[in-house]
Every structure is written in structure tokens, then in C-alpha cells.
Design goal:
Two copies of one chain form a homodimer.
Chain A (H helix, E strand, L loop, with lengths): L6 E6 L5 E4 H6 L3 E8 L22 E10 H8 L7 E11 L6 E9 H4 L5 E6 L2 E2 L9 E3 L12 E7 L6 H4 L3 E2 L10 E2 L6 E6 L4 E3 L2 E10 L5 E7 L7 E2 L1 E3 L9 E9 L3 E11 L22 E7 L1
Parallel strand pairs in A: 1-10, 14-21
Antiparallel strand pairs in A: 1-2, 3-4, 4-7, 5-6, 5-10, 7-8, 7-9, 11-12, 13-15, 15-19, 16-17, 16-20, 18-19, 20-21
Pfam families (chains A, B): Mo-co_dimer (PF03404), Oxidored_molyb (PF00174)
GO molecular function, one term (chains A, B): heme binding
Protein name (chains A, B): Oxidoreductase molybdopterin binding domain protein
């Protein structure tokens, strides 16, 4: 498809169903937001017992500047019925599933309050250029603070509905199942957990005696990261890291660093622990769930000083 | 440096020390060999207890066509004293170490019998082109069957010696230390162990019921791979995989495949086990060593049929 002729409808429980063209979108008021996108399965490989799915370690996260139009701006054109409860966004991607017969399009919904948040945008640029194909060209929904499954790529259609959407990527996948063999207590994956990653030094690396900079990132899906504490003795004692915060970028990760003078040879277990403005602290052990979502236990890096 | 003027000496315990130019090398009889290069630390991350070093899983291995001149051809120009025991190859790369003061060049030796083997070559092409810089441009030693630390990049100098080379990359690194806290039983890393990797399906992936192709590679550092057996029940029963062998390429890996009809839902632990022509079989548990070299336990992949 050429973007010149690309368009998508907003329909369903609205006053004026309408088709928006790509060109119209470019002409509407835009905003550019730096947003962390973290896969709900980031760090899945760290769960014990193992969980099935892509064995992500720390790498299923990124951040970028996304430019687009608030979804709420578009919904002002169509209006939304009083009975509306959710906004359903359908992507062009489709495929089979291992657990059901047939093929399925990727479709997800947002509760109305999140769909109407001014920072929930229909993006057409990533880092100042048209969105690369694999990241959702030509249009992608961006939902700050939610795990990235909410940010539907390759938008095909938007539908406002009066009930609760029940597609498999909403009710089967991206659901926390607390138990291995039954579905008791299942609840949907939404906002990101308070989390941090040690980027330097590398796990199980060997360092010389002397000064070393421990550094990394921290992020959260509600409020902002307010503190990162570091332990070099496997959690017995903690000291605060320095944060590079930028209040103009509430949806970006925070870089942190900690100066360590490693005097004695030996093996050390370094830990980082982020706290957000809602008081959510990374736990010592992540809450296990069958599909391996939302891992956010303390980040652990072992090093040897020799 | 420009390759047109590049040259390196062969000196030490030889009759006629000599400088070889890159141009001379190109004019000498060449051979092209498909060679597996496997890092001695490949699969290090799978050792229990953990070992320090780059946390490789299955990816620290590759194969390519290398074109060059047999080292033994060059040594015919210089001659080798009767007292000679080893050939020392020095690279241009240099740097600090965490365990010793000072900077060190990367230098390794080969025993005379391996240096004189006609398939030990000074290579100047990788896959039909000049060797890319990161792979050793302009000249790299290639030592088939040995772990890749032997294949010295960026050759600077070759020296024939009458004794045993003692550089840190020979006597400290690339040494098997069987014990955590003492050096009893230490011995050098040389040839690759009999090994295999399951490439498909991915570990902890979910598959539908029905037919699946399990496939992967197998390789060894002595003789050739003669069999790969597969278990789909965590080692209780084994069946042979089909091998795609090519006797004209004794130093390449062997591709293998196994058709599996997965009838029953559930979790399965797939294992692959290679055997080489010297009767070396992959063990259930790899021989632990402090620096995490030579991991070759059975390759394990868990899948869920749903």
C-alpha cells in the first residue's frame, strides 16, 4: 500500500463513523513523545520454574520518539456514544495459533479512559522518520505505560464498543495466570511493573580491583521512577544510585549510575532495585505466572574481582 | 596497513628466517576449506554452577570457507630445526588483563605436528573475499578441529621455538581447571568436543499437535560425527536422526533432522546426542571447569504441545 492512499475507519458505537486518510492525519495537531516499549515477556527467561514463550532476557525493551495524533482528537470527529466502554484496534497482521483452529488477526482493546488519554496516539513517525515496516508502518497505536502488546502495529480499523472485547490476544494471551494447571485468579496484563536493569558490568564478568561504574536503566508503568538502590553484597546493604531524571519525558526510562570502589578480591552479587512514585518496589522474587509476563524481580549481576 | 605492503616474518628455530609478503602468499598454492570455528566458551552459560566469562548460549559457533596457504608450505621455505617443538603465532591485538599488570599481545602456540598438518593454513580469504577486519584481516591462522582460540587473527609474526610456549593465553586462559579453588589437574584446551545443537524447535516454544521437524547441527574436533540420536522423552528412549554428511568437508558441521509426530498434548523434553568416529558421545552432564570451556552435554529443548 502507498501511504498516499492509505486510510482506516473509526466505527462502532460512535455518532459519525468516519474514514481517516493518512494525509488527514499528517494535517492534524501532532505530538512527539519519548516512550518506553517493553514486551510483556521481557526477562521471561529469568522465571523459575521456566515458562513457555520467547526466552527473553533483558533485551525486549526499547525507547524512541513517536510522533502522531492523539486518538482522542480523532474520536472528537466521530463522537462516542454514552454507552461506549472500550476502543478496539485491529492490526493487519494475521496468522494461525497453536491452541485454536483457524487464523486470527491481531486485535486489542483499551478501556475508554486510556483510549481517551491525550498521550495515547496514532503514530506515523518513529525518531523523525516514517515508522519502519517492522515497527508498524504506516500507523501504529502507542499506549504509554502499558506493556507493548497494547501498542497495536499496522492499524487497519478502530471500533468503539459497548461491551468488553474478547479476542484471543486479550483473553488468552497477555493474561496473568497465577497457576500452572488452572485459570483461577487470571487477570489481564496492562501497565508495566516498576523495574530496572544493570547494563554495566555484564553478568559473570571479571573486573580488576579499583573503581568501577555500575550503571543501568529503570522504568515503570504508573507514576515515575523515584529511586534506584544498589547492593553489592547480595541485598544485605543498599545505597542509592544517582538518577538522570527528566520531568519533560515522563514515559522514558531513567538512567542511573553508582560508583563502586572494589577493594577486595572475590565474588560479588550486585543488585538493583527501583521504586516508583506509587511506592512500588521491585520484589526479591517476581510473581510467577504461567505465560511468563511482567518479570520485575531485583536485577542481579554477579562479578568477580581479581 | 595496505595489504600490498603487508608482510610478516617466520623466525626462531628455523634454517632460513624469512619475511613473507601478502603478495607472495597469494602466489603460492592455496586450498579452500570449510571449517567450523567454535569458541571454547560456547554454551558456557549452561554450566552449573555458573562460570565467569561471556555468557554464551549456543551462538558462539560458525562455519565458513577459508582460503589460504598451508603453514607447512611456508615452513618448507624456512626449514625447521630438529630441536623445534612448537610454532608460535602472534597477533596484532593487544590489551590489558584483569589478573596481571601490563598489556599483552594475543599469542598462541601449536605443537609441531598440528602446525605441520597440511590443513592448518594461513588464510587470506573468507567466503571468497578478503577476510573482514573483525575476522582477522589481512591474515589469519586457521586450525581446523581446535577450538577457535587457536586460530590467531591479524597475524604479526610466526616464531618456531624449541620449548613450550608460556604466554597467558596459553597457560592461564584456555586451560581447563577442574576445581573452583585450586589448579590441580589443569590441562590445555585443544580440540573441540563431540557436540550437537537443536536449532528447531526453539527452547520453551509451544507447538500444535501433529508433525514437526526437529533439526540441528553436530560437530566434533577429532574424526567425524557418525551419529546423532534424538530423545523426545528426556532420555528414556532414543532414535537416530538423519545426517546430511559430506565426506569432502571433514571440518564442517553436519546437519541432522528427525521427524516427530506429536500426538499427545503435554510438555516434552527433547534431547540430541552426537557420537563421533572416535566413539566420543555427548555426556548427560558436561565436565565442569572453572573458566567454562568445552561444554558439550546433551542439547536439551523443552516444548509444549497444545
Amino acid at each position: 500500500m502507498t501511504t498516499h492512499f492509505f486510510c482506516f475507519p473509526i466505527e462502532g458505537s460512535v455518532y459519525v463513523p468516519r474514514i481517516f486518510t493518512y494525509q488527514e492525519l499528517l494535517a492534524l495537531p501532532s505530538k512527539t513523545i519519548k516512550i518506553v516499549l517493553e514486551c510483556a515477556g521481557n526477562k521471561r527467561a529469568l522465571f523459575h520454574p521456566n515458562t513457555y514463550g520467547e526466552q527473553w532476557k533483558e533485551g525486549a525493551i526499547g525507547q524512541a520518539y513517536w510522533k502522531g495524533v492523539s486518538l482522542t482528537t480523532l474520536l472528537q470527529y466521530t463522537g462516542v456514544h454514552h454507552s461506549a466502554r472500550e476502543v478496539v484496534v485491529e492490526g493487519y497482521d494475521t496468522g494461525p495459533r497453536t491452541d485454536m483452529e483457524g487464523t486470527f488477526r491481531y486485535v486489542r482493546s483499551l478501556p475508554l479512559h486510556k483510549a481517551l488519554h491525550p498521550d495515547t496516539i496514532i503514530a506515523y513517525e518513529l525518531n523523525g522518520r516514517p515508522i519502519p515496516y517492522k515497527h508498524g508502518y504506516p500507523l501504529r497505536l502507542l499506549v504509554p505505560q502499558w506493556y507493548a502488546m497494547a501498542s497495536v502495529k499496522w492499524i487497519k480499523k478502530i471500533t468503539v464498543i459497548d461491551d468488553t472485547f474478547q479476542g484471543p490476544f486479550q483473553t488468552t494471551d497477555y493474561v496473568y495466570y497465577p497457576h500452572k494447571n488452572n485459570d483461577v485468579g487470571k487477570h489481564p496484563v496492562t501497565t508495566m511493573n516498576s523495574n530496572s536493569t544493570i547494563q554495566q558490568p555484564l553478568h559473570l564478568s571479571t573486573l580488576s580491583q579499583g573503581a568501577h561504574l555500575i550503571k543501568g536503566i529503570a522504568w515503570t508503568g504508573e507514576g515515575t521512577t523515584t529511586a534506584v538502590d544498589i547492593s553489592i553484597d547480595n541485598g544485605h546493604t543498599w545505597l542509592p544510585a544517582s538518577l538522570q531524571q527528566n520531568s519533560a519525558e515522563p514515559y522514558s526510562w531513567v538512567r542511573w549510575s553508582f560508583r563502586w570502589h572494589a577493594e577486595k578480591k572475590g565474588e560479588y552479587t550486585l543488585l538493583s532495585r527501583a521504586t516508583d512514585s506509587l511506592g512500588r518496589v521491585q520484589p526479591p522474587i517476581a510473581v510467577w505466572n504461567r505465560k511468563g509476563y511482567g518479570y520485575n524481580a531485583l536485577c542481579m549481576t554477579k562479578v568477580k574481582i581479581e
